Amino acid sequence: MPNPTAQFTESPRSLLVVQTAFLGDLLLGIPFYQRLRELWPQHRLILLCRKGLGDFFLKTLLFDEVIEIKKGDRASYTKAQEQLQSKNLEYIFSPHESLRTAFFCSSLKSKHKISFRKFWNSIFFTKSIEKQKQWPEPLRQMSLLFPWDSETQKKAFALASENIFYQKDSSGKLSAVPGWCSLSLREQLNKDTFTFQRLVETFKLKSYQDNKWIFLFPGSVWATKMWTEQGFIEVGRYFQEKEYQVFIMGGPGEEALTERIQSRIPGSLNLTGKTSIYESAVLLSKGVLVVGNDSASTHLACCADVPTVTVFGPTIIEFGFRPWSSRSYLVEKSHLVCRPCGPHGHRHCPLGTHECMKTISSAAVIRCCEKAIP
After folding, report:
1. Which of 181, 227, 251, 344 maximizes the CB count within 10 A of its CB?
2. pTM of the entire structure?
């Protein structure tokens, strides 16, 4: 016989997403998270991610709760496991595919555990989904929902049949992204006037009303994915001289790099390490252009739905990690025989030349920027 007080004594049903990869992979999952909310509106959405990344996903209301772990720290995984044991988990979705993540998921109680199919992981998950490797990452992550979401499945395969994921025009502009799978959080970011005004006051920023803010992100987790410092300097000088306000941006550990660049662009501002991920997104939403490498910065720009020029070197967009917006432009050396040299870049160029980046001129990037700016 049903317990009439169960609704008061049982914890609310929860849905867990396990994604402990870098920030870029988390950002590319935004359409997936939004669809989870639509499909299971009564569930509490919980995210397990790397330490320091969760705040953005709470403040954008993509998740109700975030549990962070420190990679390589067994104690943090144990603590996260203990926290999750008290949750009434009905679904666990794991876009992350490592063995450690599979073991972690297996330690939790849940009716449904879903990940991408591997030859070894059927013992860890109740359902394994074939990964569409030729698809962009946002759609790959959304495919984890197909057993429950025939509508999205039909849309995704229809989009795939058009074969436009990786097309670009003569100006470098990439093919458009449908609204139903967009990363854009622009409307929500623009509504947060409190955070924006606080940032304006803290950093004594000039008005953005004349559409003159440009953001440069010269860093990357992978050294070979970074365009040249001189290239960023020349782009920054060009636009600063045209009376744009140039911001140099970056994350923890990139301070020395951005300080060198900022010191050679008179009038530019360096906000590296001074803003959170969420605060950076709020600022980007007021800008006219973002210039960066194939890194999380350009995905964050897509969240802000600001025109983006991305410099690609050792990687190619066909790996599935193209900037996922309709306002994205690409600069690359398309016909190098050594390219691509890997899906994630390297610490050092395997050939010792780094030709894929060093041969991209600032003039080529500036031409693309001029086309990207509205």
Report:
1. 227
2. 0.94
